[in-house]
# Entry
Amino acid sequence: MSQAKHTANLLWGAVALGALGVAGSYAATGPERFWANWVMWFVLLFTLGLGALFIVALEHLVNAKWSVPVRRIPERIATLLIPAVPVGLIALAAVPVLYPGARPEAAHHPILAGKAFWLSLPFFSVRTLIAFALCLLALWMLVGGSLKQDASKDPAFNLRARKFAPAFMAIFALVITLVAFDWLSGLTPEWYSDIFGVYVFAGAFLSGLAATALAVLSLQDEGRLEGVRGDHLYNLGGFLFAFTVFWSYIGFAQYMLMWYANLPDEVIWYKVRLEGAWRLITLALAGLHFVLPFFALVTRDSKKDPRRLRRVAYLMLGAHVLDIYWLIFPILGAPRFSWPELSFALFFLGGILLWIRSAMQKGEDMPVGDPFLREGLEFRL
Amino acid sequence: MPETSYAVLGVFETPDALMKAIPKARASQLGTVEAYTPYPIHGIDEALGLRKSPLGGMVLVMGILGALTAFGFQYWISAVDYPIITGGKAVGSWEAFIPIMFEVTVLFATFTAGLGMLLLLNRLPFFGHPVLSSKAITGITRDRYALALEAENEAFDAAAAARILQEAGATEVEILPAPDRSPFLTSDYILRVAGGIFTACLGAGLVMYFAIKLFPVLAPMKYMQDQPRLNAQKPSSFFKDGHGMQRPVAGTVARGHLPTATGTQDESAALVNPLPRTKEIFAVGRQAYKNRCEVCHGAVGDGMGSLTAAYGAKPANLHAQQFRDYPDGKIYWAIVNGKNAMPSHAADLSEPQRWAVVHYVRALQRAQNAKDEDLKVVAP
# Structure
């Protein structure tokens, strides 16, 4: 227990140190870089929570049995949506600074003037609030209901969750598209890509999966989650493998069409990312987000191997951070990475880990009230 | 001693009974243990001690080979053998290769998986597996679970194997006879297959021959021939002026060759033809002249081209004294910028081609106005 206390103290220290750096960076580097960092970590936090909630809903939707023993893990990670709300409300202050569509000059812009109402701060805020409300509703339905089931043992929850899951898919599609178009593609409002929401979804789902796999493996190190075996890990690894390919497919499809058509308003987005130091980062993203995890997980045994899976999960989370960085930071010019970025990473990573650690201590590790738990534990490939 | 039986088959009522019997059958070491069940049973791979399939590695290697093949093939075609610029992209742009690399990777990988599984690992074609002709097969495809002890060599003891399976709890035991393993690729079989293919080809050929004879108007695939298109020097309703050929947009130049004659014609008089008078250059000039100039200026440059009558224009007779006195630069200027009714050829002819045409025009002028010394025979 003293070990756990030690870790908690370390994390609190990281958060405190990070908070100092965060406050200092606003004064030292100006609002643009501060808000770019803030929006990046808001998007990371929000997509991680959404991705985890998507896993929960997906398992309810298809009535999956294998995932019941590990379902509590994405349920706990999905509670990150709660701290994402205040972080997101603060991030709204970034809108007039970073988002050209919400600035007064937009009224004279030939393209943005037509979208002025949609891009304006009031409607932007309304959309964000609606997205938060929908997410919290889904969290209450799916995660809250599951926690209540631990005590009540009421199988009716499974039926309710299964009925709610299709509705959640519609909510999820709407919310993740809003995140993608408002918060990420809104930074360059002249640029437009239909598939962008799907691209962000792929990254969000991957980050949720990687966090789930990591949490399952660390709980197993502590001797918890007894009964979760290589067969369950294989499914998590298989999902990770499949969706690294999916992410690359969507990412490359978007790039190739724009590269081929070579329309100035589309291709500029890539031109910025393929010149100078950004070119290296783009190549690194392709390597870390696709090539490395693809070959690390390609064999059947590697998906069951806890050591391999843990490394790939760390890699995927890192690659997801790089991906969101790559989507946001080119608006500031050359890649920026220095103490402000490190402070933000310390502050938010420490906070996320503290939140998840405390969530992992609450209640049962498995949904003990779920009638399918036994079937899930007996799952074999 | 001939092989007397293929295997002994024991039938079990439940999958649990089958799983319990597997270790006993394997411990007897009488033959290869194989299970036949109506659906996959969890954990049976480990119980049977099956080795990891080599198929995964084969598929990975062939998939990578497929990707490399597709890349190499496309690169060779579009950058080495016939470099052509498509859509304004550089030759050998890898981005365009990715979809085809992906498809060929999948093609190689799936063929390797399918054919490797069937031909290499399961040793097909092998007609009539002995278990298919057993009495137990109707049960095995429904609700019975069979365990087979398969003969590994000629010393297989079928009676002992049957006893082991019975002791392990089999409700029925059946000894399967050895299958007919005579080779099926006999010369008779090959002859019949080859004869069948030949007859089918002959039939198809005859049908095609008479079909084309009887229905000669049914030309196949005329879409490309019939599509709306613009032909050089033909009318077309596509453009307002009714011409198929349009003047290039102002300022158009041949790829890679900026025009040097941008001033007035008199200013260009000082330009010097940079090309030597060689046979090859004259050939280039002649070809370009035939393609671009001859319809108006005529084959010998006398201004009596085949289009002259149709248009009512009066192209220059290049043998007139005025043009014979022109410096090279002025002819070059006319090619680049056009003159009177003559359009600019800057977009059609590269800079070396234009200067080669200048040389050729000089040759035509000289041929029509030869001097005495031109008639001397050049020593070989």
